[in-house]
Amino acid sequence: MRLQFYDIIPSLQPYIKLICSMDCDGETDRQHIRVLPDACVELFVNYTNSPVAIIDNEQHKRSIVTFRMSRPMDVQMRKGTGCLAICFYPGIAHHFFPLPMHALSDLNVSLSDLWNDMAAEIEEKLAGICNDEGRVNLVQKYLLQQLILDKQDPQVAYCLNQVQLSRGLITLSKLTNDLGLSQRHLSRKFQQYVGLSTKEYLRVSRFIYSLDHLKKYPALSLTEVAHESGYYDQAHFNRDYKAYTGHSPGQVVHSQHILY
């Protein structure tokens, strides 16, 4: 699979983590990958006649939005398939899809179910553009049209920032004490805007940052990675990897089909 990353226009930079094109042009007819959870919402806009992907054995013919919060996805892409992938920052996608995020968590939803006729309009215009730069420019214009400029919940925004700064190591009690909220109240806010409870978000964030350690420090042992990532012990480290990848940490390191 060929990936190419593109610049995000300034007005969308607070909302969008990355934009890239994905073209399946390898030697095999299908490419199989397992994509791990990252607590982000991603939009895949199809610009070919081929189905955009087969995800968990379900074929998606047109553009989709994946709310991949807490579980991996098994993805197959056929040779000749091409799409644009837009990844939103955690807790941000509600600015473009104004629905309770917990109602969509861990689902793959057709873009036409969220943006109605506009989805087909985008795909039709993309099909007439012969280069990815032009496609990216067009999609960003539509994203601006759909952007809802309501204010981010300040308490959720504070928590998301603290989780990022601590690389997933901040505790739930620390967050609730800082804000003067009960765990239940804060969790309801997270369900609304992020799609996970606060506790679930902290757990998956710690896992995500441990993946960074695996990539950046290949010389470290798995025990050292677990410790540096804030895991209490190896058993908790192994448990999270089994839950979020279906494999042990060692299998993730050596796998050729797991994307993270």
Describe this structure in words.
It is a single chain. By secondary structure, the chain is of the alpha+beta class. It folds into two domains: 2-146, Jelly Rolls; 154-259, Orthogonal Bundle (Arc Repressor Mutant, subunit A). The protein has ten helices and eleven strands. The chain has helices at 111-115, 117-127, 132-146, 154-166, 172-179, 183-193, 198-216, 222-228, 234-245, 249-254; strands spanning 2-6, 16-23, 30-35, 40-46, 53-55, 58-60, 64-68, 73-78, 82-88, 108-110, 258-259. The strands form two sheets. It has a six-stranded antiparallel beta sheet. The protein has a five-stranded mixed beta sheet with strand order 6-5-8-3-11, with no helix packed on it. Strand 5 and strand 6 (58-60) form a beta hairpin. The protein starts with a strand and ends with a strand. The mean pLDDT is 90.
**What is the helix/strand order?**
EEEEEEEEEEHHHHHHHHHHE
Low-confidence stretches: none
Number of domains: 2
CATH level 1 class label of the largest domain: Mainly Beta
In total, the number of strands is 11
Structural class: alpha+beta
What percent of residues adopt helix (DSSP H or I)? 40-55%
What is the helix tally?
10
Distance between the termini: 14 Å
Strand order of the largest sheet: 1-2-9-4-7-10
Measured by DSSP, the beta-strand proportion falls in: 15-25%
Radius of gyration: 19 Å
Mean pLDDT: 90
Largest β sheet strand count, sense and barrel closure: 6 strands, antiparallel
Q: What is the CATH architecture annotation of the largest domain? A: Sandwich
Overall form? globular
CATH topology of the largest domain: Jelly Rolls
